[in-house]
Design goal:
The protein is α+β, with helices and mostly antiparallel strands and about 400 residues long. About 50% of the residues lie in helices and about 20% in strands. It has helices at about 1-15, 15-55, 80-85, 120-125, 220-225, 250-260, 270-325, 330-360, 375-410, and strands at about 60-65, 90-100, 100-105, 110, 115, 130, 145-150, 160-165, 175-180, 185-190, 205, 215-220, 235-245, 265-270. The two termini are about 35 Å apart.
């Protein structure tokens, strides 16, 4: 087998320019297949992450200004969470929150744009982190709140401590441990309005800290564990309000009236409508991406298979010599197969080097993904490579088998 690999390498060197262009095309095919599959898989993951929150009857609300305190509760000290629990009893609220507190480090006050996610929301999407990690059970520290922060001009880094002083003087001060740093232009869960709103793609927004205060992200369960309640939090931003199964038609009407009057809703839509729009948007992404992927693969297959057929034509002279000196037709086929594997392997390696060196999947202007290609994307690209290998070899095999006829003609 070793000698056959050497002969395959010699064939490549003899026609290096032709095989270089073949490798270039195959590398581009791998890159575009990974690019397209990354878009589709990550859009699918985002849809699946929020599909559970959209699968029940209820309302999606975006209230960036937060909820209003009902007139009867003004001056009572009722918290935003308590308002939801009291006035929306027939509903389950999965919400984002704002923290009612000041933040400082070494006695210097630091303004932050704070977003606290219900744990269901933090589990639905993990943003790209330049450093550190996202929220997990094993990185929770007793007596501390955890935070993931955006790039900032304060010099705050992963591992640093920030002090939080709630507006409510009766609430205990808390230390915040920074566990993660968002990547530049990372997308986070924060509503972004578009013309065809609302679907799951509106739930994500690129955080631009240069044109606003740096962001600090939390999870609600940390506050419940530290304070025993969520009194320091005020519902603000995205809210998924689903009716409980036992809610009556009258209670649903009352809930809708309360949402319209007190939620400061910039957007309010029925959850089933948002789910339907999300499914249509995802299907639209599929229909936009698949034709590009199909066209690229078809072009790559036609051109590279044609080149490989031309290559075996040049190699036939050598194969005839090998055959006359005792190598079987099967051995000649193996040389060609090893040559194809060599070209395919080098092309795939070149594509991986491009991804590793340029971080292609992070630096696109579209910012639709924030991660390196995963196993699924690499598997899809390898399957495409195997398909190319099969088609090329089937065509080449017929040409190589012709050396038997040549031997008969030579004997005659």
């Amino acid at each position: 087998m070793k000698i056959l690999w050497k002969l395959a390498g010699r064939e490549e060197k003899q026609h290096r320019l032709m095989y270089f262009f073949m490798m270039l095309q195959l590398s581009m095919m791998f890159l575009i297949v990974i690019w397209c599959s990354t878009i589709l898989l990550q859009q699918t993951d985002r849809y699946k992450g929020f599909s559970g929150l959209l699968g029940r009857e209820g309302k999606f609300v975006n209230a960036p200004a937060g909820i209003k305190t009902p007139e009867a509760e003004v001056g009572s000290g009722i918290s935003g969470e308590e308002i939801l629990l009291k006035y929306l009893q027939p509903m389950e609220a999965i919400s984002c929150y704002h923290i009612l507190a000041d933040f400082e480090q070494d006695s210097s006050e630091l303004p932050w744009n704070t977003i606290v996610y219900d744990d269901r929301i933090s589990e639905a999407f993990r943003p790209f982190l330049e450093e550190g990690e996202w929220y997990r059970e094993d990185n929770r520290q007793e007596g501390e709140l955890r935070a993931v922060i955006s790039p900032n001009d304060y010099g705050i880094e992963v591992g640093d401590l920030i002090q939080m002083k709630p507006y409510d003087d009766s609430a205990e001060k808390a230390n915040i441990r920074v566990i993660g740093l968002l990547g530049t232009d990372a997308q986070i869960v924060r509503f972004q309005a578009t013309d065809d709103m609302v679907s799951y793609h509106n739930f994500f927004n690129t955080y631009d800290f240069e044109n606003g205060m740096p962001a600090m992200l939390f999870v609600k369960s940390d506050f419940l564990e530290f304070y025993g309640d969520s009194g320091t939090l005020w519902p603000s931003g995205m809210m998924f309000l689903s009716y409980r199964e036992e809610a009556s038609a009258e209670e649903k009407r009352e809930m809708d009236d309360f949402i319209g009057q007190y939620m400061n809703a910039q957007i309010a839509e029925d959850l089933p409508d948002v789910r339907d729009k999300s499914a249509r948007y995802l299907w639209g992404q599929v229909m936009e991406t698949l034709p590009v992927l199909a066209a690229v693969m078809l072009f790559a297959f036609i051109t590279t298979v044609s080149i490989s057929a031309l290559g075996v034509k040049y190699a036939l002279a050598d194969y005839k010599v090998f055959y006359l000196t005792g190598l079987s037709v099967k051995g000649c086929r193996k040389i060609q197969l090893y040559l194809n594997l060599l070209i395919l392997g080098k092309s795939f390696l070149a594509a991986m080097l491009v991804l590793a060196g340029g971080r292609l999947l992070r630096e696109t202007d579209h910012k639709v993904w924030q991660a390196e290609p995963g196993g699924a994307q690499l598997l899809i690209s390898l399957l495409c490579g195997m398909l190319w290998l099969l088609l090329s070899f089937l065509i080449q095999r017929r040409r190589i088998d012709d050396i038997k006829k040549w031997r008969i003609e030579a004997d005659d």
